[in-house]
Amino acid sequence: MKKQALISSVLALLLLLPSCSRRKTERDPTADTGGGKTVSEILADRDRTEPEFFVDGTGYARKKDVTAVLFMGIDKAGDNETANPMTGGQCDVLLLLVNDGEEKRQTILQINRDTMTEVELLDANGKPTGITKTQQICFSHTYGRGDEKSCENTVRAVSRLLGEFGEIGIEGYVALLYEAIPSLNDRVGGVEVKVTDDLTSADPALKAGSTVTLRGSQTLAFIRSRMSVADGTNKNRMGRQRTYLSAFSAKLKAMMKENASIVNDLYADAEPYMVTNLSVGRVSSIAMEGADYANGGILAPEGEYTEHEYDTGATHVEFRPDETSLREAVLALFYKPVSP
Questions:
Q1: Where are the domains of the chain?
Q2: Residue 247: what are its φ and ψ, rounded to 5°?
Q3: What is the value of pTM for the model shown?
Q4: So what's the architecture of 2-177+274-338 in CATH?
Q5: Least confident piece of the model among 203-212, 226-235, 311-320
Q6: If you ran DSSP here, which 8-state letter would residue 254 be given?
């Protein structure tokens, strides 16, 4: 029974991610929240507290009831038993799920894997060295062996990236190897998507403008292809990943109405590829808490792509988030404006 509870709870939490549509970081402070009051009116009704800091003349204080969980998609061949034990694998997908208990809202922050930030180096035993290096945030998971230490290092990198105003407090993490995706995809009978990029170099069937029901390894071609697609950056791939997650979630939810046991089957497929520090009870609590919350969408901070060339001639793409855009996302998710 305990394992079945964990299966249901983890998948219930994961299902919350793709149901949101992407939105930019800008918010209309006068927009109606759906409860008859605007955001400004709700803030005016709350007990005021002293500002912790000021931004452009506006005082802010930390929200009192916010839960954040980091979801990671790991680019590593094999499963947790057979994958290369000497490297953790790059973290190609980073989604921070934020439950706001004050506003009763659930929002996702999508972090670009090419984001340049300070990443801590680990020693041969996976212990933090206290030494950091500016590099793509995806490399934070390569240190260690893909276990809890690798995940914790990624949590620290994300916290550092978002910590302009102090520790944001990421409570837990769930890391899933990409190798699990084909099995999960086929378990629900394939997922139908509209192909917007020319992906024929990865799979001849994935022509731009076509509608395809993804099967097996074809799924990875759709969500992972990058170098030979459009401008070669991660931006297009992030859009395709949102498209896939939304379609997968919709299909799974429909199937669960007819066959609830599919949740157990999916977890059995995912379990060998997953690492998490969340307990059964805590995952269930977070999932139930967010089930009745309003949909805050997906925040995807804007930024600039540049290409860096090494002395060897090799190049890689770097993404530097716009400071204002990233700051607005952090303020919206973790803080509230208050009067002195």
A1: 2-177+274-338
A2: -70, -40
A3: 0.80
A4: 2-Layer Sandwich (3.30)
A5: 226-235
A6: H
